[in-house]
Every structure is written in structure tokens, then in C-alpha cells.
Amino acid sequence: MSWLTRSFGANRRLAKALTAWNAGDWTGALDIWAPLAQRGNARAQSNMGAAFLHGRGVEREPDKAVQWLTLAARQGDAGGQHNLALCYAEGWGVAQNHAEAARWYEKAAGQGDVEATARLGDLHHEALGLP
């Protein structure tokens, strides 16, 4: 199977999972995302992290959320970067660290994440350990 066929199949599964998630079928979405995430799909890893962060379809476990979000963020997933920054800003699953939050918000903002841009501005405005 070519990488293009695998990529198209993964994108279809991601879309199907998102439809389930938006319909409130969190378990159905997680059943699709989990194997993709374990195989290294950044978007699926980000979504798994969000599920653990908010306790949707699983128990709320900020530590597990950070593990998944870190994997996604390091691969350049803007959603993963944004949510990982939120974890650092709030101290969810990691020690609160505004400089680290700003670093990840900046990466997400650089990809056009408007909310990350606003949160980065808030950190600077409130001078939370940043210039």
C-alpha cells in the first residue's frame, strides 16, 4: 500500500471520528483515533490529548493529555501546540510555566491559530514571566 493510499485512508478515518465527536459519540471517535495516534498520526494524537484534557469519552487525566499533546506538538500539529500551551499556562499535567506556554502558543500562532495568538498576547500583557 502506498503512502498516498494510507494517508487518504487516515484522513477519511479522522473525518469520520470528528463527525462522531461532534455528535457527542466520544467513545466512537476515540476508537478511531487511538490506533491512528499509536501509529504516530499527529492529528489523532492531538485529539486524544484533548479528550484526556477535557474528560470526553475517558476519565480526565491531564498527565496523559500532556503525553499525547507533546507528541502531536513536536510533529507540528497546531491544535496540539495550542492545547499543550494551555496545559503549561494552567499547570494541568505539568508544572505551570508561562515561558513554556508562550513558546507553544507562538508555534501555534505561527500556523494561523488566532486563539493562540490572543493567548500569547495575554501572557505578554499580564507580564507573566515574559517581556
Describe this structure in words.
- The chain is an all-alpha fold and 131 residues long.
- It contains 7 helices and no strands.
- The chain has helices spanning 3-22, 26-38, 42-54, 62-74, 78-90, 98-109, 114-125.
- The model is unreliable at 1-5 (pLDDT under 50).
Spans of at least 5 consecutive residues with low confidence: 1-5
Mean pLDDT, as a whole number? 91
Helix-strand makeup class: mainly alpha
Number of strands: 0
Distance between the termini: 50 Å
Q: State which percent range the strand residues make up.
A: under 5%
Largest sheet: none
Radius of gyration: 15 Å
In N-to-C order, the SSE pattern is: HHHHHHH
Shape descriptor reads elongated
- The tally of helices reads 7
Helix content: over 70%
Task: Supply the key terms.
about 130 residues, about 0% strand, elongated, disordered N terminus
List the helices and strands and how they pair.
Blueprint lengths: L2 H20 L3 H13 L3 H13 L7 H13 L3 H13 L7 H12 L4 H12 L6
Short recap of the structure:
The chain has 131 residues and is mainly α. Helices cover 73% and strands 0% of the residues. Helix 3 (42-54) packs antiparallel against helix 4 (62-74) and helix 6 (98-109) runs antiparallel to helix 7 (114-125).
